[in-house]
Each structure stands twice: as C-alpha cells, then as structure tokens.
Amino acid sequence: MDSLTHIVLGACVGEIIAEKRVGKKAWLFGALAQSLPDIDFFVSFFLSPSENLLAHRGFTHSIVFVFLSSFVLAFVSRKILKNTSMNIRQWAFFWGIQSFIHIFLDTCNNYGVGWLEPFHHARFSFNVLFVADPFFTIWVLIAAISFVIIRKQQMRRKWSLTALILSALYLSYAFVNKQKIERSVDYNLKAQGISSLRYFTTPTPLNSWLWYIVVKDKNGFYLSHRSVFDTSKLIDFYFIPRQDSLISTTLSGDKDLYRLIRFSQGFYTLEKWNDSLIFNDLRFGQMQGWRNPKAKFVFHYFLHAPADNMMVIQRGRFQNWNMGEVKALIRRIEGN
Questions:
Q1: pLDDT along the chain (336 residues), means of 10
Q2: What span, in angstroms and rounded, lies between the C-alpha atoms of 208 and 184?
Q3: Nearest CA among 159, 131, 136 for reference residue 57
C-alpha cells in the first residue's frame, strides 16, 4: 500500500495497543513501526532499476525479517524507553504486529511480496486492492487526524477501533467483488472457448469496482475490464501476442531481461517502439485501458536503455490523467 496508508493505519493500531503503557506517543511509535518494512527504499540508491524491482518488498517484507526485527527493536525500545511500562515481550508484539500488518496489506495489491525470503523467492499477491485506495484509507486517516484534536484516551481508542473496523469491512467487500468478477471470467472463458493457462484480476486505480483482467494462453494474453455493475454477461476480450521472438541473441542472456521476466511472474509482452525494444509487465494495467483496449502499458521498460527506467512503476500510472479521464473512469465503473 502507499506510505500514507501505512502511517495512519500504524498510528491507529499503536493507539489501541500501547497508549495505556506508552502514553500519547503511542500513535507516533505506531506510525514508525508500520513504516519499518519500507526501509528497503534506501537500497534503491545502490541498485539498478531491474535489481531494485526484486529487492523492493523482498527481505524486509518477509516473515523472517518481521520475527528478527521485532525482538531486536523490542530490546532497543526497552533500553531507551525505560520510563514506559512495556516489557520486552510487549514491545516485541508491538513491533511484530505492525510489521505483519504492513506485509499483509502489501500482499493485497499486485506488486508481489517476498514472504519467504531469503529461503524462497516466491512472490505473493492477492490482487484485491489498488496500491492507493481512498475508500480503504479514509477511515484510518480521519482517526489519525483526530488524535491531534481529541485529548481523552478513551475517545481516541473508540475512533481508532471504528476506523479499523470500517477499513477491514471495505477490504472484505473488495474480496467479495473479486470473487464476483472471477466467477464472470470463468463463465466467459468457458462460453467463448478460451484456453487459459492461468489468469489474474486486479482493481483499476483508486477503487474496487472496476477490475482489470489478464488471461494467459500459450501464445499471448486476453485483456479486458469488468465492472461489478456490468449487466451484460459477455466480457469483450482483446488479444495481444507475447512476441518472445523479438528477443535477439544479444539479449538472450541479459540480466535485466531475466530479472524482469522473474518479476513479472510470466505476465509480460515485448514490443517495438520505433527502434526501442520494450518489455511490458501486464500486471500493472494500461494507461486508461478501460477506455482504450490498445493503450500502452503502465509498466514499460526500455531494454536497450536501462538508465531510462528510473521510477518505472510510477511513471505511467497516472500519465495524462485529467478531469475527463476521471469522469470516464466513473462512467466505466457504473457499467457504461
């Protein structure tokens, strides 16, 4: 999830767990603790773009890291914050539960999280929330803001609990929406005679009602968008080939390409933009693809110019967005 969500969610959890023992600083410690796994951001300054793709949400988002860091930070916290009534075991729980919530939430979107690092490089993702979803975040954000205004601990605790319950209900609702979409995909694959090796569905930006669909077969991918409010049973798929044939002999052993294929979990295509060879990771969707099925992909990597790939995840995510695009998204969510 985005950094703001982790900060305000951590503040709410910290308020509930530790306010009685730590005092008003509990929500500050919570915001810090919830942000801890994202320390891998600093590693990006020393890695190439393709290396950083696999390093991010890797070891610092693993179960091993959560376990080890919890006890180390518990010991440090107990030594430094001697005026609190938290013992080492309670501090370990505090740091551990915050980090675990962080790595669980990150698994809810489509980047992939290395829960089993360093023993296994598998990436886990539920593909149920967009990386920034205001309908999930708004409740804990309001509660976190209230901490500055409300003095009574009991009232702050009620605000925190209410916010966490509302966010959890929205997350559950997103899972329900995903199941509805996937039932529709299963029906259409059978009805349209599409042979699927595997597929995934993931929300489009800032909502959990319009979903992006990618179906993989042996030759390429079928793409589409589906709203939970669509009335037609038919999903109109658009096919694109993978085009592995574009990989030249000079690129066949390229480390960047190897990392990208591993990162994409097999959901990729290659294409030419003039003289540039482009690697597309399909999992991150298309730029306003709900309006144009042939739109460029958000994640596009220049294989012959690695230095041009800084911020590769972010650069196409909201490219060319304006009020007209927002209205088009809302209309498509409504089923139009």
A1: 96 93 89 96 88 95 98 94 87 97 97 96 96 97 92 90 98 98 98 94 97 96 97 96 80 82 94 90 93 90 81 76 90 92
A2: 16
A3: 131
Domain borders along the chain are: 3-173, 192-333
> Which has the closest alpha carbon to 132: 288, 281, 3?
3
CB 73 within 8 A of CB 85: no
Contacts of 23 (CB under 8 A, 6+ apart): 84
Q: Which two tokens stand for residue 318?
A: 């909201």
Residue with tokens 């308020």: 15
Place of tokens 């306010």: 19
What lies within 8 Å, CB to CB, of 120 at 6+ separation is none
Give CA separation, 193 vs 113, 196, 222, in Å. 33, 9, 12
Beta-carbon neighbour count of residue 324 at 10 Å? 11
Tell me the C-alpha distance between 73 and 75, whole Å: 5
